[in-house]
Amino acid sequence: MATIQTLHILNKSPDHPRAARCLEMVSEDDGLLLTGGGVLFLATGHLSGPGKVFALSPDIDARGLGEFKGSNAELVDFARMVELSLEANRVISW
Amino acid sequence: MSTLIMIDQAPYGAWTGREALDMAFSLAAFDQPASLFFTGAGVNWLRQNQEAGGIGQKSVEKNLSAAPIFGIEAILADRAACETYGLDENSLIEGVTLVDADAALLNDYDHTAFAG
Amino acid sequence: MAETASETFTLVITGAPYSSQAPQTALGFAQAAVTAGHRIDRVFLYGDGVHLASALSAPPSDETNWSEEWSRFLSEHSVPGVACIASALRRGLVNETEQKRYELPAANLRTPFEIAGLGEWVEGRIKSTRTLYFHAGD
Lengths: 94, 116, 138
Description:
The structure holds three protein chains of three kinds.
Chain A: E1 6-10, H1 17-24, E2 31-34, H2 41-44, E3 52-56, H3 57-62, E4 74-76, H4 78-87, E5 90-93
Parallel strand pairs in A: 1-2, 1-5, 2-3, 3-4
Chain B: E1 3-7, H1 16-29, E2 34-38, H2 60-65, H3 67-70, E3 74-78, H4 79-84, E4 96-99, H5 103-107, E5 111-114
Parallel strand pairs in B: 1-2, 1-5, 2-3, 3-4
Chain C: E1 8-13, H1 22-35, E2 39-45, H2 66-76, E3 81-84, H3 85-90, H4 96-101, E4 114-116, H5 119-127, E5 130-134
Parallel strand pairs in C: 1-2, 1-5, 2-3, 3-4
Helix pairs in contact in C: 1-2
């Protein structure tokens, strides 16, 4: 697996101004990890930017988004979140 | 180990920006390179002629003017956000560098953080 | 490879319990990191995050007490939990030293949390492999 340049951890829902700002700064070599309200991006289907997308599984389940599990995000648990944070060259929490 | 502290909330209505400034000043106090990046509504921190006495607060413009003395390396502002809020060289405080908010900006720093 | 070596983390929590999910997400991360054999150098509470260190929060018995959960985790794994002094004093969170200094009627810092300056964050940021932030959501 290619190294992630920057792992962007986004816990803001799609309507939060910081969510848009985050997406603008994600590049091809980056990873985007959706946590908290950020997983609601799966419901909007408006996530077509560059970079690999991950989503925190318990947050998806909590919000009843199980039906979107097959979409373009890779589901991760906390153990994988820890690994991702170490694999990336840097981490930004939005 | 350079750090970019981001401020994206307007001044006075929220405390996060002041706490972000404290983070940057602390890094500088421990000789760690730190810069500030104002984006979104946060660029309103950088407007001249702020008089906050009437709302019982200290002017953030004054806090910010101490940044170079404390050793903050750069005060950066999101060019597009400045345009949105009508900020140009006539209305911005001194010492602000306009930059584009993109992935290239983040690559210049080891660490990027918000205060909240 | 990152996943085989033991790494260290500084976790910064800026979202308060009961007004944000930040302390929960941070605890999930911290538990997973320890389970994977990594070490948490310290947990630093900043801004509204300092409310997590209150000894006086008493949520209904059928809700998780996040302050208690975090205290237990810190004690079990000997992880220092530090509340930023400037954030804490502004928000009415004090230990006995600060109570005496400011002649306040009570101290309310939960064991094993400590109160210290932003220097603790700066040090964690330099020493730990990664410093991660847990902010309030929306």
